[in-house]
Design goal:
This protein has 729 residues and is an alpha/beta fold. The chain is 47% helix and 22% strand.
Amino acid sequence: MSKKTILIADNSLINRTYLSGILSDEYDCLEAVDGQKALDILRERGIDIAAMLLDLVMPVMDGYQVLEEMSKDPGLRQIPVVVVTAESETSVEARALDAGAMDFLTKPIEPEIARRRIKSVVNARELEELHIRNRLLEEMQYQADHDELTGIFSRSAFYRDTRAMLLANPDTDYILIRWDIEKFKLVNDLFGMKTGDQMLVAAAESLARHVSDLGTYGRFGSDNFLICVPAASLDVESFMDVIVNEIRSSFEDAGIAQSVVLATGVFRITDHDLAVGQMCDRAGMALQTVKGDYTRHVAYYDDKLGNRLLEDQDILDNMEAALANGEFEVNLQPVYSLSTGRPASAEALVRWRRPGKGLVSPGVFIPLFEENGFISKMDYNIWEQVCQIQHMRNEKGLTPIPISVNLSRKSVYDPNLVESIVGLLRRYEIEPRLFRNEVTESAYIDNATQLIKTVEDLQRYGFTVLMDDFGNGYSSFNTLKDIPVDILKIDMKFMEGFERGGRVGVILASVLRMTKWLGIPVIAEGVETLEQYEFLHSIGCDYTQGFYFARPMPYDEFEEHVAGLPKAAITSPARFHVDDVVAALGSGHLFDRVMDDILDAYAVYEFNASALETVRGSEGYFKLFGYDMDAFKRESSNVLHHIVHDDREYVVQACHEAIETGKPCNLAISCTVRGGEVCRLHLTLSCVGKSNDETALIFAAFHLIDNGCEGDLHASCPYASENVGKHVF
């Protein structure tokens, strides 16, 4: 064992030699001839010095000055000092003690007394250092065991204490409860992180009040909490209601009105030897089955979930080999243009074909890959397969068709994303316009800034960016406002519960109108029925995708499918429906009031070569013709019957021009109203939709014409009668 080091500071050589002789058997002795040199040695050697013998009377710097300088330095302050003095007066000792000395030796020095006092101060210092270390260890252990925000046990401490509790009570049945706060991120977004933290602290305090005497509890992470108690000690649903009410009460005390919903998973512990971490995973699996389900909030782990756990592990064990063996395949699903009736693009969808097991559902393996990060490798593999497909199509001289790929959240946040994709396109000589990228709206919720940057970076290289699953997030219109996507894909959930003229139809029509104002094309995905297709066609949807047209298919089948389609691949709906018109143009009293303020009279017609039939009209429209709505429908819904014979041809020609050009057409006409009176009207016709059987929807706006200003209208209206009236509209 190495000797400790003692510093002897004394200007007398005789005294230094004497003290060194006394202590050298137990200590390595260093010497300093004055106070300044003593300080230099202390600062150089620091904690290596176990103690110092310090003479009070020295040149350059005396002992009091040395003690004063040491007191200013936290590192030197801890070194014990024994003062050596020829004076034994109490005032001298008191002054030295006040300055920081720990003990005294009075000259002449007795050897045994010197050894004992040095040993005493050295031991005292070591004991103090031990106490300090123990305190630091205790603080470190506390910090490791307790969550910094809430003060309750951390995950690791919960694991340890739960394991100890289970081992100590092998005959007791326990349950492990794992729960989190639904839409917790929304709380942070709406009210701020401080309010979110307040919610977490309230939850932790509630656990401490109710669980501390029953079992163990802790914070798993974020808004996720853990409890392990005897199964007979509480009713889970009633207990969770108590926690909810106490969290809600803390919000009310802060003046915040916020609903609180907890999703809870429960695992019944039958095997006390099972790792606590595995118990938490199983409770977590149960929890996931009630996330977002507002009909129930508590779920129990069972054998079905257990089998799923084994299946999940099997997938994770084989994912790398599957990638190496080429088991992940690209299937293509066509996206059809409603204007041409043919595929305008396609979406690449991954399929896992496992030897001996067949196809694995993407809904099973993709969430697992997203969770463990393997999704990035699979993404790149799919991108490369799409590039290979495009390269083959180019080599065969086939008509180019863009293919879109899905970007997982992990890929979206990859700083090398654009570089990776551009590298693939260069290798396979693919134009960016043929490689489209789909991002999900939910990625905006996680990191809006990064998603916007990724979209802009991709567009800068010439890529088309689609927003997938629009409408599936809580901030759909924010995403549409903030993210400069090129194409919108309406979430297939919009099609669930679809009925013509219902709320779903109105919402879809409203989204379509809004996107047209923004100049963003729309793909409606998940179209499965003729009725859905007809409705989308009637409200002017640009593109559709779904099982009604084609399922995802391997590349060879896709080429056969495209090649085998006739020139007009889709049969367009034969007629329009009144419900479609209502949804497309708006409905309700508010819409009517706004339109009535703008126009004197307006109507929507179904037009073909022989009729212009009214399907909807404003109050002013029916008043203009001298009918109420019911009488008009009974007596004559074909407005051509009301137009004087010479002007009917002009109206029909104007309708055709509006249909062909897509632009409004103006003309002046004479009409016979109820009672036989003839009046002059200015008419503006616009096409709002058409089908492939010469049927179209025409929107018409009417204004009565004052006499005397006919020439203005005649110059801009090729179908106007010779005796036209004033151009009012």
